[in-house]
Design a protein that fits this description.
Layout: H1 11-14, E1 20-25, E2 28-33, E3 38-46, E4 52-59, H2 65-82
Antiparallel strand pairs: 1-2, 2-3, 3-4
Length: 87
């Protein structure tokens, strides 16, 4: 798994990432597959039993990064208050 420098990413930068899993910010990742043809956002968290879980947030080509970041923020807030992510 690749960990890109966490910071501000533009849509252009998201579409330049090579195949692999890239961390965009805490809990928010993009998975690139098929020589860059498929790019999907997901939210990674620990469930109450301590297992790593991924929640799909959609395709990078169909969802704006700003919308995905806002949803990830809501999920992080949910985790802080309930101890588990909810969609």
């Amino acid at each position: 798994m690749s960990h890109a420098k966490i910071g501000r990413f533009s849509k252009k930068q998201i579409f330049e990432l090579p195949d692999g899993t890239h961390r965009l910010e805490p809990h928010l990742y993009v998975r690139v597959r098929g020589n860059g043809r498929y790019r999907n956002y997901f939210f990674r968290y620990l469930d109450p039993k301590g297992r790593v879980c991924d929640l799909a947030l959609g395709s990078a080509s169909k969802k704006p990064l700003s919308e995905v970041k806002q949803f990830a923020f809501l999920l992080k807030t949910s985790l802080q208050f309930s101890g588990k992510a909810s969609a």
